[in-house]
Design a protein that fits this description.
The chain has about 375 residues and is an alpha+beta fold. Helix content is about 45%, strand content about 20%. It has three domains: about 5-120, Release factor (Methane Monooxygenase Hydroxylase, Chain G, domain 1, Up-down Bundle), CATH 1.20.58; about 130-230 and about 325-370, Alpha-Beta Plaits; about 240-310, Double Stranded RNA Binding Domain, CATH 3.30.160. The strands form two sheets. It has an eight-stranded mixed beta sheet. A three-stranded antiparallel beta sheet has the order 6-7-8, covered by helices on one side.
Length: about 375
């Protein structure tokens, strides 16, 4: 890339950035920020931990957006100044200024691309923490192993984003892997917004390590994603709508094991939804966690109803797969991961299973924003 090409590319990037910046409605964000900051000055603000947690998180998000927009604009102006100072006869293969300018351009192009994703997060719950559940499909040990591979894939993705992840419930497979697991993901921006489209069936094709004949095996697992509740989307569940049951929670050892009934199971009678919690040390903590999970599931039902109404207006999107299958992971006879909704694919199956999901997740976010 020579000076002329770099100048033209930078102008196009600046134009794209300004168009993108206008979508954020800066004045509205600043007005919201002022309102929220005034709330923090209230004498009783710190007496309501649940409410102030939501407000402080939103303040942090707005400041992050404003700072990022300001930084990118300043860096684009700086890049223009640097390019204009480069001599016309500079050799792109030897000029240090050209090389450094290209590096800065590529970095800014990536940051503008990330902003294109952020502006898509306008959903009611997109900035919420969330629960991610993974369930093995039919297929016994093979399916349980696939569910554990999916668990590892998402856990690596969470770690790369510096998100906090906790296991809230787990049922291990009889021979290997897991039958089901539930993860609580927190401490990040737009967690539910990024993960909500991962819900659905994930299909694996590979040479089975559990088959002595070395035959190819197809396995499925189901992923569910539910936003965590906060004061903005509280759902009320009355005591007469639930059945509560406590049982002994086993473990690897320790004085508390099998001496108290700590595992909690709650059934929501109107819907038949069953939730469990067993990882906390006390029954009270597990009951609180189970109720939070139940409310999140009920909220997800409401979200799906809203989405169905939207789909009636937009037209139903037909998934090119079996049932609600969203993605294929083929490890034999060739290597390919392909999303059936966006068409995004890669032969780097090892990278994907190691948590390199940005390309898939971002493409789905952009698709659903149109």
């Amino acid at each position: 890339m020579d000076k002329y090409q770099l100048t033209k590319s930078t102008e196009e990037l600046f134009s794209s950035f300004l168009a993108l910046k206008s979508k954020f409605n800066i004045e509205s964000l600043k007005s919201e920020l002022d309102t929220l900051q005034e709330e923090t000055k209230s004498p009783d603000f710190w007496s309501n931990p649940e409410n102030n947690k939501v407000i402080l998180k939103r303040i942090s998000e707005i400041n992050s957006i404003l700072d990022k927009l300001n930084d990118i604009e300043n860096n684009l102006n700086f890049l223009n100044e640097v390019i204009s100072s480069i001599p016309q006869n500079a050799d792109d293969s030897s000029s240090q200024e050209i090389k450094e300018s290209i590096d800065l351009y590529n970095e800014l192009k990536k940051e503008v691309g990330n902003l294109e994703i952020v502006v898509c997060f306008s959903g009611k719950y997109d900035d919420s923490n969330c629960f991610v559940s993974i369930h093995a499909g039919q297929g016994g040990t093979e399916a349980c192993d696939w569910a554990d591979m999916i668990r590892r894939m998402y856990t690596r993705y969470f770690e790369k984003n510096n998100w906090k992840v906790e296991i809230t419930d787990i049922i291990k497979g009889n021979e290997a892997g897991i039958d089901s697991i539930e993860l609580f993901v927190s401490s990040g921006e737009y967690i539910y917004g990024k993960l909500k489209n991962e819900a659905g069936a994930h299909r694996l094709v590979r040479i089975s390590p559990f088959n002595a004949q070395g035959l190819r095996q197809t396995s499925f697992c189901l992923v569910e994603v539910m936003p965590q509740l906060d004061k903005r989307n509280e759902i009320v569940v009355s005591d007469d709508e639930i059945e509560f049951q406590a049982s002994r929670s086993g473990g690897a050892g320790g004085q508390n094991v099998n001496k108290v009934n700590t595992k909690v199971t709650i059934t929501h009678i109107p819907t038949g939804i069953v939730v469990t919690a067993s990882t906390a040390r006390t029954q009270i903590e597990n009951r609180m966690l189970a109720m939070e999970k139940l409310k999140s599931k009920l909220l997800q039902i409401e979200i799906e109803k809203e989405n169905n109404e939207i789909q009636k207006l937009k037209g139903v999107y037909k998934v090119a797969g079996w049932g609600n299958q969203i993605r294929n992971y083929v490890l034999a006879p060739y290597k390919l991961v392909k999303d059936l909704r966006t068409g995004v694919e890669t032969s780097d199956t090892d990278g994907v299973l190691d948590g390199d999901l940005d390309e898939f997740i971002n493409a789905e976010v952009l698709l659903n924003s149109n």
